[in-house]
Amino acid sequence: MCDSFAIVTRGIVRAGNAVKAIAEGFSDIDSAKPALDRIHDLIAGAKRSGDDILNIDSAAIGFSKEIGDFVAYRWEMKEDQTSVNFSSFPRGMHLAPVMHGATLPPLPPELSDEQIVKIALAQHTTVKRMGFSSVCIGGEMHLTELTRTGIVQRTIGQYPDYAEMRDTIPTLKD
Q: Which one of 9, 25, 96, 131 counts the least CB within 10 Å of its CB?
């Protein structure tokens, strides 16, 4: 997380670490976006060059002085893709990932931590029951809140399979 914008990532840890390292060099989201576009293109290039398991899902959220409002940008490259899809989100509360490009109804503008955990657990249960292999939800539940005066990112819960993931995926042990 930077001082004036937040970065969140899912997917292969080393790809997420590269995105976060690039973001650390910038003081605002407007100047960071071109570099974030480039690092995601480099990650896609590495995958096309033979790094078959590489995938990334990351977002940068912050106040844009150029636009005069909060912006949320997302870069995503799934396991079966070799290029990065870019999208932006309107101001609001968003839950990711979504299944197979589904469009979710907007979440209320304010929810308690307990309500967010319930929604996340329902999403996790749906993915497990339906057997969606292209959607990975597990580990810790992170909540990132942005206001004009600051950013708070915190862990609000753990998914039921957190211990299993921690013990079977070496990068989670660090």
A: 131
pLDDT digits (tens, 9 = 90+) for 83-108: 898 988 877 777 666 665 666 677 78
DSSP letter, residue 93: -
Question: Which long-range contacts link 26-30 to residues 24+ away (Cβ below 8 Å)?
Answer: 26/2, 27/2, 27/3, 28/4, 28/62, 28/63, 28/64, 28/65, 29/4, 29/5, 29/60, 29/61, 29/62, 29/63, 29/64, 29/71, 29/73, 30/64, 30/65, 30/66
- For residue 81, what are the contacts with CB-CB under 8 A and spacing of at least 6? 55
Cα of first residue to Cα of last residue in the chain, in angstroms, is 19
- Each residue's pLDDT tens digit, 5-55: 989 887 777 888 889 999 998 999 999 999 999 999 988 888 888 876 677
Q: Is the dihedral of CA 115, 121, 123, 129 positive or negative?
A: negative
How far from 154 is each of 39, 41, 65, 146, CA to CA, in Å?
A: 25, 29, 25, 12
